[in-house]
Amino acid sequence: MNFAFDNSFHGMMEGFYAPAEAAQPSVPTLLTFNTALALQLGLTGDGTNDARLARIFSGDELAAGAEPLAFAYAGHQFGHFSSQLGDGRALLLGETLAPDGARFDIQLKGSGPTAFSRNGDGKAAIGPVLREYLVSEAMAAMGVPTTRSLAAVATGDRVQRERSHPGAVLTRVASSHIRVGTFQFFAAHFGADHVVQLSDYTINRHFPDLAEAANPHLALLDRVIGLQCELVARWMGVGFVHGVMNTDNVAISGETLDYGPCAFMDRFALNTVFSSIDANGRYAYGRQPQITHWNMARFAEAMLPAIHAVDPAGVDAAKALVDAIPERFRVIWFDRMRAKLGLGRADKADEQLIDALFGELEQHGVDFTSFFRALAQLLRGDGDMLQTLLPDAEAMAPWIADWWAQLEREAIAPLERADAMDAVNPLYIPRNHQVEAALVAAESGDMAPWTALLEVVQNPYVARAEWDAFAHPAPVDADTYRTFCGT
Questions:
Q1: Can you tell me the mean pLDDT for 296-325?
Q2: Using CA atoms, how far apart are residues 248 and 73, in angstroms rounded to an integer?
Q3: pLDDT of 485 over the 70 cut
């Protein structure tokens, strides 16, 4: 496997990371490899077999040009500031340049302890590794900005959590792993010079158009706020609950980062929480916009030394950007929901219709994903799918009448509108009961259910008869789903 490594962070940002080395796995065995992503990255593997891929992507064999490092970062975890976190169970192999010139981090996750492990073992169990692989690839297929998964390798070792599990390593691909927490670490420990250096590097790498702004650091804050608002609106549009929106899990690139206790809603409920450690619902589905606002306020605080160094008046401008986040999110959110509901041009009445929808979905316990596909079927003259989702024929009838009236304001053919809705509303998502069943099978050595589910969620929009079971929500009497942090 040949990588076009060009390790800018390692070369330009000394002092912002610690050297790292992967732990040697006992018997590395390739579980899965993302050939399509490898081709996109321009990774070539002349004569590379599964055994060698397993060695490379477990850390057993260091690829030519790799310069492993662990990032330093801090973060607010459930609202409490931890001044030093860092990559405690991951290392960056290096940055590779794709054929189109795009730069990507190649990171091993679960590869063993680093300087930031805080007495942890630095390992990962097979369940969290395969969950992240599956969900990140599903998100990519749905057009949600996300880190990607290149490989999963079983290590042949056991890791101890609440019980013993087979160990594994995930190879994660990202535009970068620079986080809000990265800025927080250097603002807290080193001050303006380091924040300026990190901001300049981030702008040069991700947003070179901002370099000529009057205050590039203020412009970076503005850009990141916009990306986070767009990202969270996309999450919520597919019923996704991240589960651990700590500032160390917020990527500056606007990609979804870290799939620990994440999950997708079945029946809609605004306060849906899946994480076993989120007892107070801080990161519930409906709170994700407010947490985005809070996280971006923390990012602004970390950026203030750099912003102030260019122009003291930029501090007031930064505060104004933060204050504007709720309205900025709502504009993006309404646009996202209009597309899901088949509404074309914006109208103020849409906002009332959209706001009212969620109370109706919760009152009647409607499956979130299936509902929007059922509306498209209704436009095709088939109301059967919608009726199966509702408790009785009259449930949601006034709301559906209002929706239909809004549609009639525009001269768009019903079939054209239905097709447009199906293009943005997934039919197949990683349903929690299906994910859990696949992970249980994989832990026992049977990868077939996981592989089948991966193929489905990588093709989320077009119905296939043989995949009908994958579109069904969890049984009504299913236990409350709980997820656990992968550490």
A1: 97
A2: 7
A3: no
3 inside domain: no
Same domain flag for 249 and 331: yes
Model confidence at 118, in pLDDT bands (50, 70, 90)? confident
Of 252, 330, 248, residue with least CA distance to 289: 330
On whether the CB atoms of residues 193 and 256 are closer than 8 A, the answer is no
What per-residue confidence (pLDDT) applies to 486? 52
Residue pair 404/329 in contact (Cβ under 8 Å)? The answer is no
Residue 487: pLDDT band by 50, 70, 90 thresholds? Answer: very low
Domain of 139? 8-174
pTM given for the model:
0.96
Identify whether residues 313 and 404 lie together within a single domain. yes
Q: Map residue 452 onto helix, strand or coil.
A: helix
Please indicate, yes or no, whether residues 408 and 266 belong to a single structural domain of this protein.
yes
What is the torsional sign of CA 244, 436, 148, 8? positive
Residues near 364 by beta carbon (within 8 Å), at least 6 away in sequence: 390, 391, 395, 396
Coil, strand or helix at 33: strand
Residue pair 137/149 in contact (Cβ under 8 Å)? The answer is: yes
When divided into structural domains, the chain yields a total of: 2
Provide the annotated active-site residues.
248
Does 83 fall in a domain? Answer: yes
Q: Return the closest-CA partner of residue 70 out of 90, 50, 56.
A: 90
Q: Which helix (H) or strand (E) holds 353?
A: helix 348-364
Contact (Cβ atoms closer than 8 angstroms) between residue 38 and residue 99: no
Do 227 and 97 belong to one domain?
A: no
Angle of helix 448-457 relative to helix 432-443, nearest 10 degrees, comes to 150
For residue 47, pLDDT beyond 70: no
Looking at the structure, tell me whether residues 101 and 250 fall in a common domain.
no
Domain boundary among 174, 207, 238: 174
* Distance of alpha carbon 277 from alpha carbon 268, whole angstroms: 21
Count of residues for the chain?
A: 487
Give the span between the Cα atoms of 195 and 197, in whole angstroms.
5
